[in-house]
Known about the structure:
This protein is an alpha/beta fold and 482 residues long. The protein has 14 helices and 22 strands. Among the domains are: 35-154 and 282-367, ANL, N-terminal domain (Rossmann fold), CATH 3.40.50; 371-473, ANL, C-terminal domain (GMP Synthetase, Chain A, domain 3).
Amino acid sequence: xNLHLMRxxxxxxxxxxxxxxxxxGWYWRYRRFGRAFHRLVQEYLERxxxxxxxxxxxxxxxxxxxxxxxxxxxxxxxxxxxxxxxxETQLERLTLAELPRLPLLDRNVLRTQPKSLxxxxxxxxxxxxxxxxxxxxxxxxxxxxRLTHQHNMAVREARCFRWAGVSQLDPRxxxxxxxxxxxxxxxxxxxxxxRVEHQLYLSLHHISLKNIPDYVSALNRxxxxxxxxxxxxxxxxxxxxxxxxxxxxxxxxxxxxxxKLEAHMRAEIEAVFGARTWEEYGSVENCVLAxxxxxxxxxxxxxxxxxxxxxxxxxxxxxxxxxxTVVTGLANRDQILIRLRLGDxxxxxxxxxxxxxxxxxxxxxxxxRVCDAMVMPDGRRVxxxxxxxxxxxxxxxxxVQQELNKFLLLVVPTAKYSERCREVLGERMRRxxxxxxxxxxxxxxxxxxxPGGKKRGIVCLLPPELTGPIHxxxxxxxxxxx
Length: 482
Ligand SMILES: [Zn+2]
Protein backbone atom coordinates (compact mmCIF):
# COMPACT_ATOMS: atom_id res chain seq x y z
CA UNK A 1 0.00 0.00 0.00
CA ASN A 2 1.47 3.40 -0.85
CA LEU A 3 1.90 6.12 1.74
CA HIS A 4 -1.18 8.16 0.77
CA LEU A 5 -3.49 5.15 0.75
CA MET A 6 -1.99 4.08 4.07
CA ARG A 7 -2.76 7.51 5.58
CA UNK A 8 -6.36 7.35 4.38
CA UNK A 9 -6.72 3.77 5.65
CA UNK A 10 -5.20 4.69 9.02
CA UNK A 11 -7.57 7.64 9.46
CA UNK A 12 -10.67 5.60 8.57
CA UNK A 13 -13.05 4.05 11.09
CA UNK A 14 -12.97 0.27 11.53
CA UNK A 15 -16.03 -0.29 9.31
CA UNK A 16 -14.41 1.58 6.43
CA UNK A 17 -11.17 -0.36 6.95
CA UNK A 18 -13.14 -3.62 6.74
CA UNK A 19 -14.72 -2.44 3.47
CA UNK A 20 -11.28 -1.57 2.08
CA UNK A 21 -10.10 -5.06 3.00
CA UNK A 22 -13.12 -6.55 1.20
CA UNK A 23 -12.22 -4.59 -1.95
CA UNK A 24 -8.59 -5.67 -1.67
CA GLY A 25 -9.83 -9.23 -1.09
CA TRP A 26 -11.72 -9.26 -4.40
CA TYR A 27 -8.75 -7.84 -6.26
CA TRP A 28 -6.26 -10.29 -4.73
CA ARG A 29 -8.47 -13.30 -5.38
CA TYR A 30 -8.80 -12.23 -9.02
CA ARG A 31 -5.02 -11.71 -9.27
CA ARG A 32 -3.90 -14.88 -7.50
CA PHE A 33 -6.60 -17.52 -7.82
CA GLY A 34 -8.10 -16.83 -11.27
CA ARG A 35 -8.81 -19.34 -14.02
CA ALA A 36 -5.17 -20.17 -14.84
CA PHE A 37 -4.52 -21.04 -11.20
CA HIS A 38 -6.58 -24.24 -11.26
CA ARG A 39 -5.08 -25.42 -14.57
CA LEU A 40 -1.55 -24.71 -13.32
CA VAL A 41 -2.19 -26.58 -10.04
CA GLN A 42 -3.22 -29.64 -12.10
CA GLU A 43 -0.04 -29.38 -14.17
CA TYR A 44 2.18 -29.12 -11.10
CA LEU A 45 0.37 -32.11 -9.55
CA GLU A 46 0.81 -34.19 -12.72
CA ARG A 47 4.53 -33.50 -12.85
CA UNK A 48 4.90 -35.05 -9.39
CA UNK A 49 4.58 -38.47 -11.01
CA UNK A 50 7.33 -37.75 -13.56
CA UNK A 51 10.80 -39.29 -13.42
CA UNK A 52 13.88 -37.18 -12.65
CA UNK A 53 14.88 -37.37 -16.35
CA UNK A 54 11.47 -36.17 -17.53
CA UNK A 55 11.51 -33.30 -15.08
CA UNK A 56 15.03 -32.22 -16.02
CA UNK A 57 14.11 -32.31 -19.73
CA UNK A 58 11.07 -30.15 -18.98
CA UNK A 59 13.12 -27.63 -16.96
CA UNK A 60 15.80 -27.56 -19.66
CA UNK A 61 13.24 -26.75 -22.38
CA UNK A 62 11.79 -23.90 -20.24
CA UNK A 63 15.33 -22.67 -19.51
CA UNK A 64 16.17 -22.47 -23.23
CA UNK A 65 12.99 -20.46 -23.85
CA UNK A 66 13.99 -18.02 -21.11
CA UNK A 67 17.61 -17.51 -22.23
CA UNK A 68 16.56 -17.09 -25.88
CA UNK A 69 13.88 -14.60 -24.87
CA UNK A 70 16.55 -12.73 -22.90
CA UNK A 71 18.96 -12.77 -25.87
CA UNK A 72 16.39 -11.61 -28.39
CA UNK A 73 14.42 -9.07 -26.38
CA UNK A 74 16.62 -7.70 -23.59
CA UNK A 75 19.68 -5.63 -24.56
CA UNK A 76 21.14 -6.03 -21.04
CA UNK A 77 21.46 -9.81 -21.44
CA UNK A 78 22.50 -9.68 -25.09
CA UNK A 79 25.37 -7.43 -24.10
CA UNK A 80 26.37 -9.54 -21.07
CA UNK A 81 26.17 -12.83 -22.97
CA UNK A 82 28.21 -11.39 -25.84
CA UNK A 83 30.84 -10.19 -23.34
CA UNK A 84 31.19 -13.81 -22.23
CA UNK A 85 31.49 -15.05 -25.81
CA UNK A 86 28.10 -16.76 -25.77
CA UNK A 87 26.29 -17.13 -29.09
CA GLU A 88 22.63 -17.65 -29.97
CA THR A 89 23.42 -21.17 -31.24
CA GLN A 90 24.89 -22.09 -27.84
CA LEU A 91 21.79 -20.77 -26.10
CA GLU A 92 19.54 -22.81 -28.41
CA ARG A 93 21.30 -25.98 -27.18
CA LEU A 94 21.93 -24.94 -23.58
CA THR A 95 21.68 -27.77 -21.03
CA LEU A 96 21.15 -27.50 -17.27
CA ALA A 97 24.76 -28.60 -16.73
CA GLU A 98 25.97 -25.71 -18.92
CA LEU A 99 23.97 -23.05 -17.08
CA PRO A 100 27.02 -22.06 -14.92
CA ARG A 101 28.69 -20.78 -18.13
CA LEU A 102 26.26 -17.85 -18.25
CA PRO A 103 27.17 -14.72 -16.26
CA LEU A 104 25.77 -14.14 -12.77
CA LEU A 105 23.18 -11.42 -12.18
CA ASP A 106 23.91 -9.14 -9.23
CA ARG A 107 20.95 -8.21 -7.04
CA ASN A 108 21.98 -4.55 -7.35
CA VAL A 109 20.75 -4.61 -10.97
CA LEU A 110 17.27 -5.40 -9.63
CA ARG A 111 17.64 -2.57 -7.16
CA THR A 112 18.97 0.13 -9.47
CA GLN A 113 17.72 -0.70 -12.98
CA PRO A 114 14.94 -3.31 -12.67
CA LYS A 115 13.33 -2.23 -15.96
CA SER A 116 16.50 -3.15 -17.88
CA LEU A 117 15.54 -6.81 -17.32
CA UNK A 118 12.11 -6.44 -18.94
CA UNK A 119 11.29 -7.89 -22.37
CA UNK A 120 10.41 -5.53 -25.23
CA UNK A 121 6.66 -5.90 -24.69
CA UNK A 122 6.94 -5.56 -20.94
CA UNK A 123 8.96 -2.36 -21.34
CA UNK A 124 6.05 -0.88 -23.31
CA UNK A 125 3.34 -2.23 -20.96
CA UNK A 126 5.03 -2.92 -17.63
CA UNK A 127 3.19 -5.42 -15.40
CA UNK A 128 2.56 -4.60 -11.76
CA UNK A 129 5.71 -4.38 -9.66
CA UNK A 130 6.47 -5.57 -6.15
CA UNK A 131 9.24 -4.73 -3.73
CA UNK A 132 11.27 -7.61 -2.39
CA UNK A 133 12.35 -6.54 1.07
CA UNK A 134 12.62 -3.36 3.03
CA UNK A 135 14.63 -4.61 5.96
CA UNK A 136 18.08 -3.65 4.72
CA UNK A 137 17.14 -0.69 2.62
CA UNK A 138 16.53 -0.19 -1.03
CA UNK A 139 14.53 -3.20 -2.15
CA UNK A 140 14.73 -5.10 -5.37
CA UNK A 141 11.83 -4.29 -7.68
CA UNK A 142 10.18 -7.25 -9.35
CA UNK A 143 7.66 -7.02 -12.18
CA UNK A 144 5.21 -9.80 -12.85
CA UNK A 145 1.83 -10.18 -14.42
CA ARG A 146 -1.22 -12.05 -13.17
CA LEU A 147 -0.26 -15.32 -14.89
CA THR A 148 3.12 -15.37 -13.14
CA HIS A 149 1.41 -14.62 -9.82
CA GLN A 150 -0.93 -17.57 -10.40
CA HIS A 151 2.07 -19.78 -11.26
CA ASN A 152 3.56 -18.89 -7.91
CA MET A 153 0.30 -19.59 -6.08
CA ALA A 154 -0.19 -22.85 -8.04
CA VAL A 155 3.22 -24.32 -7.26
CA ARG A 156 2.75 -23.43 -3.57
CA GLU A 157 -0.72 -24.99 -3.62
CA ALA A 158 0.48 -28.26 -5.21
CA ARG A 159 3.79 -28.68 -3.43
CA CYS A 160 3.35 -26.95 -0.08
CA PHE A 161 -0.30 -26.77 0.96
CA ARG A 162 -1.33 -30.15 -0.57
CA TRP A 163 1.74 -31.86 0.90
CA ALA A 164 0.55 -30.52 4.26
CA GLY A 165 -2.95 -31.88 3.57
CA VAL A 166 -4.60 -28.46 3.21
CA SER A 167 -5.39 -25.86 0.51
CA GLN A 168 -4.95 -22.13 0.07
CA LEU A 169 -8.69 -22.03 -0.55
CA ASP A 170 -9.40 -23.36 2.97
CA PRO A 171 -10.23 -20.83 5.69
CA ARG A 172 -6.85 -19.39 6.69
CA UNK A 173 -5.37 -17.22 9.39
CA UNK A 174 -2.30 -15.23 8.41
CA UNK A 175 0.38 -13.46 10.44
CA UNK A 176 2.02 -11.55 7.60
CA UNK A 177 3.92 -8.44 6.70
CA UNK A 178 0.94 -6.34 5.62
CA UNK A 179 0.10 -3.45 7.93
CA UNK A 180 -3.56 -3.98 8.71
CA UNK A 181 -3.83 -2.28 12.09
CA UNK A 182 -2.21 1.03 11.28
CA UNK A 183 -1.11 2.42 14.64
CA UNK A 184 0.99 1.03 17.48
CA UNK A 185 -1.48 2.52 19.97
CA UNK A 186 -4.65 1.32 18.22
CA UNK A 187 -7.24 -0.35 20.47
CA UNK A 188 -8.30 -3.95 19.65
CA UNK A 189 -9.21 -5.71 17.43
CA UNK A 190 -5.71 -6.57 16.20
CA UNK A 191 -7.07 -8.50 13.26
CA UNK A 192 -9.13 -7.90 10.12
CA UNK A 193 -11.26 -10.39 8.23
CA UNK A 194 -11.14 -10.82 4.44
CA ARG A 195 -14.49 -12.44 3.70
CA VAL A 196 -13.67 -13.05 0.02
CA GLU A 197 -10.93 -15.53 0.88
CA HIS A 198 -12.14 -16.59 4.37
CA GLN A 199 -8.90 -15.14 5.59
CA LEU A 200 -8.29 -13.87 9.10
CA TYR A 201 -5.43 -11.40 9.00
CA LEU A 202 -3.62 -11.03 12.33
CA SER A 203 -1.43 -7.99 12.99
CA LEU A 204 2.27 -8.80 13.23
CA HIS A 205 2.99 -5.65 15.20
CA HIS A 206 0.68 -5.96 18.22
CA ILE A 207 1.57 -9.38 19.59
CA SER A 208 2.09 -9.09 23.37
CA LEU A 209 0.99 -10.82 26.55
CA LYS A 210 -1.52 -8.01 27.17
CA ASN A 211 -3.04 -8.22 23.67
CA ILE A 212 -3.02 -12.00 23.31
CA PRO A 213 -6.66 -12.64 24.46
CA ASP A 214 -7.86 -10.61 21.43
CA TYR A 215 -5.85 -12.81 19.04
CA VAL A 216 -7.05 -16.02 20.71
CA SER A 217 -10.71 -15.04 20.63
CA ALA A 218 -10.43 -14.25 16.90
CA LEU A 219 -8.78 -17.62 16.17
CA ASN A 220 -11.38 -19.46 18.27
CA ARG A 221 -14.22 -17.63 16.55
CA UNK A 222 -13.03 -18.09 12.92
CA UNK A 223 -11.53 -21.59 13.36
CA UNK A 224 -9.02 -21.49 10.49
CA UNK A 225 -8.00 -24.77 8.83
CA UNK A 226 -4.56 -23.34 8.03
CA UNK A 227 -2.42 -20.99 10.08
CA UNK A 228 0.34 -19.39 8.03
CA UNK A 229 2.86 -16.62 8.23
CA UNK A 230 6.24 -15.43 9.41
CA UNK A 231 7.82 -17.87 11.89
CA UNK A 232 8.77 -15.08 14.31
CA UNK A 233 5.17 -13.81 14.45
CA UNK A 234 3.72 -17.30 14.90
CA UNK A 235 6.34 -18.10 17.52
CA UNK A 236 5.54 -15.06 19.68
CA UNK A 237 1.84 -15.75 19.26
CA UNK A 238 2.36 -19.31 20.53
CA UNK A 239 4.62 -18.26 23.36
CA UNK A 240 2.21 -15.65 24.72
CA UNK A 241 -0.77 -18.02 24.39
CA UNK A 242 1.13 -20.55 26.51
CA UNK A 243 2.23 -17.90 29.03
CA UNK A 244 -1.35 -16.62 29.34
CA UNK A 245 -2.61 -20.19 29.82
CA UNK A 246 -5.25 -19.81 27.10
CA UNK A 247 -6.93 -22.53 25.03
CA UNK A 248 -6.65 -21.93 21.31
CA UNK A 249 -8.29 -23.48 18.24
CA UNK A 250 -6.15 -26.18 16.57
CA UNK A 251 -5.65 -25.71 12.82
CA UNK A 252 -4.92 -28.71 10.59
CA UNK A 253 -1.51 -27.37 9.54
CA UNK A 254 0.82 -24.44 10.19
CA UNK A 255 2.79 -23.15 7.21
CA UNK A 256 5.74 -20.79 7.67
CA UNK A 257 7.43 -18.61 5.08
CA UNK A 258 9.58 -15.52 4.70
CA UNK A 259 12.11 -16.33 7.40
CA LYS A 260 14.05 -19.35 8.57
CA LEU A 261 12.03 -21.49 10.97
CA GLU A 262 14.39 -22.27 13.85
CA ALA A 263 13.98 -25.57 15.76
CA HIS A 264 12.92 -23.90 19.05
CA MET A 265 10.28 -21.87 17.21
CA ARG A 266 8.90 -24.98 15.52
CA ALA A 267 8.68 -26.81 18.87
CA GLU A 268 6.77 -23.94 20.54
CA ILE A 269 4.37 -23.44 17.60
CA GLU A 270 3.59 -27.16 17.30
CA ALA A 271 3.09 -27.59 21.06
CA VAL A 272 0.68 -24.67 21.40
CA PHE A 273 -1.32 -25.10 18.17
CA GLY A 274 -1.24 -28.91 18.23
CA ALA A 275 -0.52 -29.09 14.51
CA ARG A 276 2.43 -30.04 12.30
CA THR A 277 4.48 -27.10 11.01
CA TRP A 278 5.61 -27.04 7.36
CA GLU A 279 8.38 -24.74 6.20
CA GLU A 280 8.49 -23.01 2.84
CA TYR A 281 11.48 -21.22 1.23
CA GLY A 282 10.88 -18.81 -1.61
CA SER A 283 11.53 -15.23 -2.61
CA VAL A 284 9.58 -12.36 -4.06
CA GLU A 285 11.59 -12.68 -7.28
CA ASN A 286 9.53 -15.83 -8.00
CA CYS A 287 12.58 -17.80 -9.07
CA VAL A 288 12.76 -20.54 -6.48
CA LEU A 289 10.55 -22.58 -4.20
CA ALA A 290 11.58 -25.26 -1.72
CA UNK A 291 9.02 -26.94 0.49
CA UNK A 292 9.07 -29.43 3.33
CA UNK A 293 7.87 -33.02 2.86
CA UNK A 294 6.54 -35.32 5.57
CA UNK A 295 10.13 -36.42 6.33
CA UNK A 296 11.13 -32.86 7.19
CA UNK A 297 13.32 -32.40 4.08
CA UNK A 298 13.16 -29.33 1.86
CA UNK A 299 12.66 -30.19 -1.84
CA UNK A 300 13.48 -27.74 -4.65
CA UNK A 301 10.85 -27.44 -7.38
CA UNK A 302 12.86 -27.52 -10.55
CA UNK A 303 9.84 -27.02 -12.81
CA UNK A 304 9.25 -23.58 -11.23
CA UNK A 305 12.81 -22.27 -10.91
CA UNK A 306 16.35 -23.58 -11.05
CA UNK A 307 18.47 -23.37 -7.91
CA UNK A 308 22.25 -23.52 -8.13
CA UNK A 309 24.59 -23.55 -5.14
CA UNK A 310 27.99 -22.09 -5.93
CA UNK A 311 31.24 -21.87 -3.98
CA UNK A 312 33.61 -18.92 -3.58
CA UNK A 313 35.23 -19.90 -6.90
CA UNK A 314 31.87 -19.56 -8.67
CA UNK A 315 31.69 -23.30 -9.38
CA UNK A 316 28.85 -25.60 -8.25
CA UNK A 317 29.46 -27.10 -4.80
CA UNK A 318 29.33 -30.85 -4.16
CA UNK A 319 26.45 -32.37 -2.14
CA UNK A 320 26.92 -31.65 1.55
CA UNK A 321 29.00 -28.51 0.91
CA UNK A 322 27.56 -25.09 1.68
CA UNK A 323 27.14 -22.79 -1.30
CA UNK A 324 25.53 -19.47 -2.17
CA THR A 325 22.04 -19.58 -3.68
CA VAL A 326 21.77 -18.55 -7.33
CA VAL A 327 18.38 -18.78 -9.02
CA THR A 328 16.89 -18.74 -12.51
CA GLY A 329 13.15 -18.24 -12.78
CA LEU A 330 11.08 -20.18 -15.31
CA ALA A 331 7.63 -18.67 -14.65
CA ASN A 332 8.14 -14.95 -15.21
CA ARG A 333 8.29 -14.16 -18.93
CA ASP A 334 8.23 -10.39 -18.56
CA GLN A 335 11.16 -9.66 -16.29
CA ILE A 336 13.68 -12.39 -16.98
CA LEU A 337 16.00 -13.31 -14.12
CA ILE A 338 18.90 -15.57 -15.09
CA ARG A 339 21.41 -16.66 -12.44
CA LEU A 340 20.31 -14.10 -9.87
CA ARG A 341 22.44 -14.13 -6.70
CA LEU A 342 20.01 -14.34 -3.77
CA GLY A 343 22.77 -14.38 -1.17
CA ASP A 344 21.37 -17.14 1.08
CA UNK A 345 23.38 -20.24 1.88
CA UNK A 346 22.37 -23.88 1.43
CA UNK A 347 23.73 -27.40 0.85
CA UNK A 348 22.40 -30.25 -1.29
CA UNK A 349 21.50 -33.45 0.56
CA UNK A 350 23.98 -36.31 0.24
CA UNK A 351 21.24 -38.95 0.37
CA UNK A 352 17.88 -39.45 -1.29
CA UNK A 353 14.79 -38.53 0.74
CA UNK A 354 12.66 -41.51 1.90
CA UNK A 355 9.52 -39.74 0.62
CA UNK A 356 10.64 -40.70 -2.90
CA UNK A 357 10.10 -37.29 -4.50
CA UNK A 358 13.77 -37.02 -5.42
CA UNK A 359 13.09 -35.59 -8.86
CA UNK A 360 12.72 -32.44 -6.74
CA UNK A 361 16.27 -32.36 -5.32
CA UNK A 362 16.35 -32.35 -1.50
CA UNK A 363 18.45 -29.87 0.49
CA UNK A 364 20.46 -30.76 3.58
CA UNK A 365 20.67 -27.27 5.07
CA UNK A 366 19.33 -23.83 4.41
CA UNK A 367 20.49 -20.63 6.07
CA UNK A 368 18.76 -17.33 5.49
CA ARG A 369 19.76 -13.80 6.39
CA VAL A 370 20.02 -12.96 10.04
CA CYS A 371 18.19 -10.24 11.92
CA ASP A 372 17.04 -9.59 15.46
CA ALA A 373 13.67 -9.09 17.07
CA MET A 374 12.84 -5.94 19.05
CA VAL A 375 10.97 -5.58 22.34
CA MET A 376 8.60 -2.64 22.84
CA PRO A 377 8.05 -0.88 26.21
CA ASP A 378 4.45 -2.23 26.21
CA GLY A 379 5.71 -5.81 25.76
CA ARG A 380 5.02 -6.18 22.04
CA ARG A 381 7.58 -8.15 20.02
CA VAL A 382 8.48 -6.85 16.57
CA UNK A 383 10.72 -9.08 14.47
CA UNK A 384 10.16 -7.21 11.25
CA UNK A 385 9.96 -3.55 10.38
CA UNK A 386 9.84 -2.35 6.81
CA UNK A 387 10.61 1.27 7.67
CA UNK A 388 12.87 1.82 4.65
CA UNK A 389 10.74 0.06 2.02
CA UNK A 390 9.92 1.92 -1.18
CA UNK A 391 12.00 5.04 -0.42
CA UNK A 392 14.04 6.22 -3.40
CA UNK A 393 16.04 8.41 -1.01
CA UNK A 394 17.50 5.44 0.88
CA UNK A 395 20.13 3.19 -0.62
CA UNK A 396 20.45 1.06 2.51
CA UNK A 397 19.29 1.32 6.07
CA UNK A 398 19.51 -0.34 9.44
CA UNK A 399 17.21 -0.03 12.43
CA VAL A 400 19.06 -0.33 15.75
CA GLN A 401 17.19 -0.71 19.03
CA GLN A 402 19.51 0.85 21.63
CA GLU A 403 17.13 0.91 24.60
CA LEU A 404 13.49 -0.09 25.15
CA ASN A 405 12.28 3.17 23.65
CA LYS A 406 15.34 4.47 21.85
CA PHE A 407 16.23 3.73 18.26
CA LEU A 408 18.93 4.66 15.80
CA LEU A 409 18.22 4.66 12.07
CA LEU A 410 21.36 4.35 9.98
CA VAL A 411 20.72 5.60 6.47
CA VAL A 412 22.99 5.34 3.43
CA PRO A 413 21.40 8.02 1.24
CA THR A 414 20.97 8.18 -2.52
CA ALA A 415 21.32 11.43 -4.49
CA LYS A 416 17.57 12.00 -3.94
CA TYR A 417 17.87 12.15 -0.13
CA SER A 418 15.86 15.06 1.31
CA GLU A 419 13.98 16.37 4.32
CA ARG A 420 10.85 14.55 3.08
CA CYS A 421 12.59 11.25 3.71
CA ARG A 422 13.17 12.16 7.39
CA GLU A 423 9.48 13.00 7.73
CA VAL A 424 8.37 9.71 6.18
CA LEU A 425 10.75 7.71 8.38
CA GLY A 426 9.49 9.58 11.45
CA GLU A 427 5.87 8.86 10.54
CA ARG A 428 6.63 5.17 10.03
CA MET A 429 8.49 4.97 13.36
CA ARG A 430 5.54 6.53 15.23
CA ARG A 431 3.08 4.22 13.49
CA UNK A 432 5.09 1.16 14.38
CA UNK A 433 6.35 2.02 17.87
CA UNK A 434 3.94 4.67 19.17
CA UNK A 435 3.85 8.48 19.30
CA UNK A 436 6.33 8.61 22.20
CA UNK A 437 9.08 6.81 20.31
CA UNK A 438 12.59 8.31 20.57
CA UNK A 439 14.78 7.95 17.56
CA UNK A 440 17.73 9.49 15.77
CA UNK A 441 18.34 9.37 12.02
CA UNK A 442 22.05 9.22 11.18
CA UNK A 443 23.31 9.48 7.62
CA UNK A 444 26.29 7.18 7.09
CA UNK A 445 28.46 6.00 4.19
CA UNK A 446 27.89 2.31 4.79
CA UNK A 447 26.08 -0.16 7.04
CA UNK A 448 28.44 -2.08 9.32
CA UNK A 449 28.55 -5.81 8.67
CA UNK A 450 27.21 -8.18 11.30
CA PRO A 451 28.32 -11.70 12.27
CA GLY A 452 29.36 -13.79 9.28
CA GLY A 453 29.88 -10.66 7.17
CA LYS A 454 26.11 -10.29 6.61
CA LYS A 455 24.18 -7.04 6.59
CA ARG A 456 21.31 -6.92 9.02
CA GLY A 457 18.15 -4.86 8.70
CA ILE A 458 17.42 -4.90 12.42
CA VAL A 459 19.88 -4.95 15.28
CA CYS A 460 18.67 -5.22 18.88
CA LEU A 461 21.18 -4.19 21.53
CA LEU A 462 18.93 -5.10 24.49
CA PRO A 463 20.16 -7.85 26.85
CA PRO A 464 19.04 -11.37 25.83
CA GLU A 465 16.96 -11.82 29.03
CA LEU A 466 14.67 -9.07 27.73
CA THR A 467 14.36 -10.35 24.18
CA GLY A 468 14.04 -14.07 24.89
CA PRO A 469 15.30 -16.77 22.54
CA ILE A 470 14.72 -15.10 19.23
CA HIS A 471 17.37 -14.70 16.64
CA UNK A 472 15.90 -15.34 13.28
CA UNK A 473 16.66 -14.84 9.65
CA UNK A 474 14.79 -12.66 7.22
CA UNK A 475 14.04 -12.65 3.57
CA UNK A 476 10.78 -10.87 3.67
CA UNK A 477 8.29 -10.64 0.96
CA UNK A 478 6.31 -7.51 1.26
CA UNK A 479 2.91 -7.13 -0.33
CA UNK A 480 3.10 -10.39 -2.18
CA UNK A 481 2.96 -12.36 1.02
CA UNK A 482 -0.52 -13.77 1.32
ZN1 LIG B 1 11.04 -35.85 0.96
